[in-house]
Amino acid sequence: MYNSDKVIPGIIIFVLFVTLPIWWNHGKTVAAPQPELPQGRCVESKEYMRSHHMQLLNQWRNMAIRDGMRVYTSSDGARFWIGLQNGCMKCHHDKSKFCDRCHQFAAVEPYCWNCHIPPETKKFGPPKATKLLKLFHVPVTLGDSQEGEE
Amino acid sequence: MLEKALVGSRKYWLWLAFLGTLIFIGFLAFLAQLQYGLGITGMSRDVSWGFYVAQFTFLVGVAASGVMVVLPYYLHNHKVFGPVTIFGEFLAIAAVIMCLLFIIVDIGQTHRLFNVLLHPTPHSMLFYDMIVLNGYLALNVICGWAALHGEYKGTHYPKWVKPFIYLSIPWAFSIHTVTAFLYAGLPGRHFWLTAVMAPRFLASAFCSGPALLLIAILIAQKVSKFRVDPKAIDTLSKIITYALLANIFLFGCELFTAFYSHIPGHMASIVYLFKGLHGHTEWVIFMWTAWLLMAAAALILVIPPLRRNLNTLVLACIMLFIGAWIDKGIGLLTGGFTPTPFETVTPYRPTVPELLISLGIWATGFLIMTVLFKIAIAVKEARAA
Amino acid sequence: MDRRKFLKLAAISASLAGGVPGFFNREVKAKNYSPPPGALTARRWGMAIDIKKCWEEPECNDCIKACHHIHNVPNIPEKKKEIKWIWKDEFEHVFPDKPNEFNNLVFSHKPFILLCNHCKHPPCVRVCPTQATFKREDGIVMMDYHRCIGCRFCMAACPFGARSFNWVDPRPYIQDPNPEFPTRMKGVVEKCLFCYERLEKGQIPACVEACKRKALIFGDLEDENSEIAQVLKSRFSIRRKPELGTGPSVFYLIG
Q1: Residue in C closest to B33 by C-alpha
Q2: CB of C169 less than 8 A from some CB of A
Q3: Closest in B121, B187, B341 to C128, CB measured
Q4: Which of B232, C14, C226, C232 could join C219 via S-S bond, C-beta 3.0 to 4.6 A?
């Protein structure tokens, strides 16, 4: 092989680099997440919801919004009103104690809550300034402008 | 062949570093836009497309114009264009990539871009635009690279490339036609609702694109040992002349229809652009500049001695390029959105971050174009030596 | 590699290619979906606005307030970037082709209520590249905010200026959020949806309910016995820009 003195160390460094998270976290343990479960039953079994809630939610939103199918009949015949704010969160009263616990553990950030309002949210904060916005002198709050209209 | 792009003069590297800086600044501005939203631009509820979409439209034209050197060579056996076709194809590659980047920065939910593929919608013109633009990019990469590789190896390009080359010719017309159809099929936007939209798009593209190509070839001749037959320059300048005249003629047709019919909706946008409406005269100076530049360029180009003189030819090319760019890059969009559906005027002014992002994309295009042209020239120089 | 080995390998990779995506896409168990019981339904929803009744209360903005509150429509102070589902504008802007230089006493500068026309042939739906906006069977031009990529083609296509874009995150501009309805996020287009979420629960649209003069009449245009069909038969009405052929479902009773 040509340049094997460079290629082989290069491959080794590359492999070490991409597996860095494994070495870095080796031997550390993190407690399993403990989401707070409400009393009573969910639309489907706990095991099913744990593994498939994302597919179910995706199907729900398509059926409800696109086909007007607002009512869900679960595998055991119980009927539920489809909705995140008006369905799921009527039992799961607190997003931070339910959704977030596992999502943070799994390092996933679903953007449901960019639009849907978590039950514990009563008010929205003001817009945030960031370094980048300051760099480009972007006015953070949309103000009154005199322009426009004829 | 890529290694040819890695050796170059100090000037070459300085030029690349300059473009790289612009790209970096543009990228930072784009990150700011991702954080803040498209509110960072000057667009509004009434003028909901602006500089980005305008640049996109103009550059689709530049991309399509590559066909103006490919077509005479492959369909009419116009031999002197042989060494030039590769530049037409590489120009197209750079332009299409810029187009795609302008679309990416223009949409509000960037990470949902692939919904267009996930939910294909054949009744939307954007669906076809996506197909023709990506197809055109692929065709030019295949044809350009195969042809150059043949030259690099000292052989002819492989046979299988031929059908792709022939396909790329009608495809070039399709990209700008579909782009015109984005606008020309919308009810209530009188300025765009015109059957000559696609022909005029093609005409303005086939003068401005080859003008850019001609300037790029002349620069290449200055900085390298690469030479084209003067006859190729002559043919190219004639193509530019006819296309520019067609563009002016088609615009004249628009003026006639609007003002002779005297229908207020048809006149309003043109009045806004060239005279001002309800006291808003933002773009009047730009529009007059654009059309005076194009008219003057046409005058230079139709006088044979001036067209053959490289200095005046380059001057005319620069003038018509700027003119066509203002006309399509600013006039088309602001004119289309003004007056608003409520017969009011909402002025649009691009913001600094918006312009920086656009500049970054143009720099990306020029970077791609420089590197590809450099490779092509190096291959041709090596052949000649 | 000999032929047999190649075939074996091909068979294994083909079964893998078939099996792996199947594993990831495991379909949700067979379940049933049904429309909500007690929902209001129609063949084509429409609205008639009795504009003279509306003028009896010149200072009234009840319909706008009700709609914008329950749908979490932000109140953005910069006019150029504002978001509105239902709003007022003067006659000259609403019907730009109608003013008449000799007879402008009745309507001149009078306010008209504006909202999405829920067109029969909606150009916004035609141009949307992802079907994020689509027409339901009951005539409502719907928005699926989950799918909108924010290309704003629909805004260019709408001849009525009914659509608004979220140029920034709208949330800081919502003072009193309604927990029953979502907000939108930056980068999507929004508009009036004829209160599809209320119709599902058997309620009429919020603006119609809020109007104390009963100036807004909502109903099924294709049901001969509905109030709206009756009133459109007996009184003179106009629509915005009918010459464009979009077939608006919002009528203005002016006679």
Answers
A1: C168
A2: yes
A3: B121
A4: C226
Residue A114 within a domain: yes
Residue C89 near chain A (CB below 8 Å): no
C1 lies in some domain: no
Compare CB distances from A59 to C28, C37, C172 and report the shortest one's residue. Answer: C28
Task: Mutate one of C24, C25, C32, C125 to test the A interface: name it (highest A CB count within 10 A).
Answer: C32
C81 reaches B (C-beta below 8 A)? yes
Note whether C155 contacts B36, CB cutoff 8 Å: no
C-alpha to C-alpha distance for A132 and C151, rounded to whole angstroms:
24
- In a domain, residue C177? The reply is yes
**pLDDT at position C74, please?**
96
Q: Is A135 on the interface with B (CB under 8 A)?
A: yes
Helix H, strand E, coil C: the string for chain C is CCHHHHHHHHHHHHHHHHHHHHHHCCCCCCCEEECCCCCCCCCCEEEEEEHHHHHCCCCCCHHHHHHHHHCCCCCCCCHHHCCCCEEEEEHHHHCCCCCCCCCCCCCCCCEEEEECCCCCCCHHHHHCCCCCEEECCCCCEEECCCCCCCCCHHHHHCCCCCCEECCCCCHHHCCCCCCCCCCCCCCCEECCCCCHHHHCCCCCCHHHHHCCCCCEEEEECCCCCCHHHHHHHHCCEECCCHHHCCCCCEEEECC
Would you say residue C2 has pLDDT above 70? Answer: no
In this prediction, the residues of chain A whose per-residue pLDDT falls under 50 are 146-150
Number of domains within chain A = 1
Q: Which of C89, C127, C163 to mutate to test the interface with B (most CBs of B within 10 A)?
A: C127
| Mean pLDDT of the C99-121 span | 86
pLDDT at C30: 55
ipTM value > 0.95: no
Q: Which chains sit next to C, with 3 or more Cβ pairs under 8 A? A: A, B
A144 to chain B, any CB pair closer than 8 A? The answer is no
Residues of chain C numbered 50-79 and touching chain A (CB < 8 Å): 72, 76-79
Flag residues of chain B having pLDDT under 50: none
Predicted confidence (pLDDT) per residue in A76-99, tens digit: 888 999 999 999 999 999 999 999
Chains that touch A (3 or more CB pairs under 8 A): B, C
Is A110 within a domain? yes
pLDDT at residue B255 in the model: 95
Please report, rounded to a whole number, the percentage of residues in chain C having pLDDT higher than 70: 87
Q: In the prediction, which pLDDT does C153 show?
A: 95
Mean of pLDDT values over C40-53: 95
Tell me how far apart the alpha carbons of residues A27 and B101 are, in angstroms, rounded to a whole number.
Answer: 44
Tell if the CB–CB gap between A86 and C180 is shorter than 8 Å: yes
Give the per-residue pLDDT at B262. Answer: 94
In a domain, C175, yes or no: yes
State which residues form the domain around A128: 33-137
Task: Give domain status of residue A64, yes or no.
Answer: yes
State which residues form the domain around C68.
45-253
Q: What is the CATH number of the domain that holds C179?
A: 3.30.70.20
Q: With an 8 Å Cβ cutoff, are B346 and A135 in contact?
A: no
How many domains does chain C fold into?
Answer: 1
Structural domain includes residue C76: yes
The answer to the question of residue A8 being in a domain is: no
Spell out the domains of chain B, with CATH numbers in brackets: 2-200+221-384 (1.20.1630.10)
